[in-house]
Structures are given as C-alpha cells and as structure tokens.
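Limitations

Structures in this collection are predictions, not experimental determinations, and the ligand pose is part of the prediction. Treat each record accordingly. The example that follows, with glutamine as the small molecule, is included so readers can see exactly what is and is not provided: the inputs are given verbatim, and the output is the predicted complex.
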Amino acid sequence: MTDLTKLTAVELAGLVADGQTSAVEVTRAHLDRIAAVDDRVNAFLHVDADGALAAARAVDERRAAGEELGPLAGVPVAVKDVLTTKGVPTTVGSKILEGWRPPYDATIVQRLRAAGTVLLGKTNMDEFAMGSSTEYSAYGPTRNPWDTDRIPGGSGGGSAAALAAYEAPLAIGSDTGGSIRQPGAVTGTVGAKPTYGGTSRYGLVAFSSSLDTPGPCARTVLDAALLHAAIGGHDPRDSTSVPQPVPDVVAAARLGATGDLTGVKLGVVTEFSGEGAEPGVAAAFRDSVDALAKLGAEIVEVSCPHFTYALPAYYLIAPSECSSNLARFDGVRFGLREGDDGNRSLEEVMSLTRDAGFGPEVKRRIMLGTYALSSGYYDAYYGQAQKVRTLITRDFTAAFERVDALISPTTPFVAFPIGARTSDPYQMYLADLYTIPTNLYGGPGISVPCGLSEGLPVGLQVMAPTMADDRMYRVAAALESAVGTFTPPAL
Ligand code: GLN
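Predicted complex:
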C-alpha cells in the first residue's frame, strides 16, 4: 500500500478528488505519523486530531455530494503557532500566551479552511519568531529530521521539520528576516517568503510589522506555489495588504518544471557568493549556478554593495518595532498574569508578568528596540537604519533593471548542532545574513534545496522584484527539475 505521508500535496489532492482515497484516510495517515515520530522531532506544539478529522470528513462529504473541490482539498497542513486559530491554542512559542485560545481565525487560516485543507495543528517556533534555530521556543527545541542532534532552522523550525519528517505535506510559516527560507534550506524543503503585503497579516501575532510576511512551506516548488495561491491576495482587514491579485505562481512553477530557462537572466549577488559561506555551501551553490546555466539561464554577477549592512540595520528596525508591538502583553488582556495577589499595583503585576512570561532573547530585543527608539538616540540608530533600508531597496531596484532575479545561497551554513550558537547572539543572527535584504526591501524570496554538504541539505535563494513572485517560482522549479528533491535518512 502507498504510504500516503510520502506523497506531495498535488498527488494527495488528486487521489482524494478521484476517490482513490479519502481525506479522512489521508489525515489519519499523517496523525499516525505524528504520533510515531514527533516525540523525537517536537515539530508540533499542539495537534488538533478531532478538528482535523472533522474537517477531513467535511471534505469527503462535499465530494460525495458531487461538489467541485479546490486543488488542495483534503490535504493536511501544519500551521506555525504565530497565526491565530479560533478555539485552538496559539502560544507564539511563548509562556506569556500559554493556554490562550484565540476567539478568531487569522485570514490565512480562514483561507486554508475555505480551500478544504485540513489543519493538523500548530508548529513549534522560536519565541515570538525571534531566532534562527527554534531553540528559543519556551516549549523545547525542534530537532532536524536529517540529524536529530541538529537544529531545524528558525524561527519556523517546527513547520520545516514537520515537512522533512513527513508529518505534513504542507505548512505555513512567517518570514521577518528569513524564518521561512532558512528553515527550508537546512531541512531540505522549500520555503517561500511572498512579497510583503501579498499575504495577509491579519491574525499573525506581530513581531516587526513592516517586515512580517506569512508564506508557504512544502517539499516541492509546485506544492508551495499552490499553497501560496490559496492563502495569498488582498485582505481589507490588513492595512498594508496589496490590493492586487497574486501573480500566477502555479503556472510559473509548472513552466519552470519544464526545465527551460531560456531568456531568463539571473544575477549572482557578488557580496553573497563564496566568501562568508561554508565551503560545502559555496560548492553546492556554484554547482547549482552551473545547473541553471545548463537550463538556458544567462548568468551575470551583480554587486549589491549595501546588502552587507542589512543585518545591522535589521537588528535596529526589527527590535524597535518589536518593542512597540510586544507592549500589548501586559498581563491584563490575555495570557499569563503573574503576582496579582490583590496587594500589588498594576505596574508591579505587569512587570512580574513580563519578567516571567518572556524568554531572554525576547527581552534582549525589547531592550535593544527601546534603546534604539529612545529620545536622543532615535536618529542615530533607528533613523540611520531606515536610511540603510532605502539604500538596500535602491540596490534591488538597480539590480532588477539588469536581471530578472537575483540568486545566492539561502544561508551561510548548514544545520548546526543544538547548543552551538546559543551563547553568542551574533552567531545566531548570522544565519539570516543572506535572507534579510529581501525583507528590508519587501520583495519575494524562495529557498529551494540545491544539494548536500557533508550529508546535510543546502538551499539556494531566488529573489525577485516586488509582486513578481511568479519569477522566483519559475527559477526554483527549474532548478528542482535539474537537481531533484532531497530525502532525509529514515527517522
Ligand atoms: N532570525 C531572525 C530573527 O531572529 C529572523 C526571524 C524571522 O524571520 N521571524 O529576527
């Protein structure tokens, strides 16, 4: 019998639509897989078995009634615990929201339900999406299915690990500085950060509102494109949502899969090629550039001189926005309340609650951001960083006058051992060296598996102009057709 957990979303939806299997069977197979392996992976913070089976039964009933089903109907999906799910616990990986059951669904969750996908549960993440390894989750680290002594990337390590461990064929992540793409790269899966505003932030617990972008994670480029199409598009409830349809990412992925990139001009980012990356990562990247050239792409070098300032600028802008956004966790409105014994002042209870509820990295970001925004320092730190952001955007604009898309490795290094980078925050921040410029600019970026280094996956990043998300899918799918997909050793 076919192992349903090994199939792609496209294959699963096809089997369900043809009546060769049911959505309930598909869902059961994935719930069984979670039960069998998740004690070793810890990808899930909450599994909603009853909700998933009820949603699957509804899809089977609609099919039996002869209703037309969408392209992802009956396919299970794991959702990063940063998106609100009505009545289903949402913690953002933090103790401060432990036990909170939101009264509403995020727009993306609503759209997943409307598409007939089956929500399996909520995935582990670095607390408030701050981190690159999922070690900063208040609920224990997620482990990389390729080697359970290593990290699965972060902050969306749970979503990526769930895919690599065959616990789910599709997952949702959020990318503020790389949290979809970097976990994708180090787990051998596909992760796409859509154009900022191309996917709704309504119901996404805010970290850095000018950067936060929810997006699709999958094991193949086409699956990611189908998920992107299902969740993307204008949302009047998000004031920064782009009032335009998502470009046809599915058609672009199918076009790319033909393996022909004739007429496509790709720019290798000079500042991110070679130096800074581990030798094995640099080698896999160079081989992939050759593979893209063989598919017909024209390859040129493009210098983006300000990209090297992206990391420091990000670590002023993101903490500044975080310090403001996280002020709402005050022990009054939702989640944890500490020390409210009737004798303490409101300020004391707030302070005790925030001290007990936030972990060390979140506190560090709040302090950094508060400092960067404080009077007398605002212009020197936050203001300067905003100017750098403009320069980075200009680098992208100039590059896209010359090339259709930019490429680089997704990360400088492969999955590192658990514990290797937790004592020095800067070493952890370096994981996003190559992904952050895209967030500061607002354009789309995708990570696609491109090879192995010492038996561990390496990702290639494709960056495209804003609202040209289709271009990155075409290039990624073409590379996938040449190098194939990567399967971890059995757990
Ligand atoms: N690792 C980066 C950070 O810690 C990016 C996180 C993200 O994209 N959510 O801020």
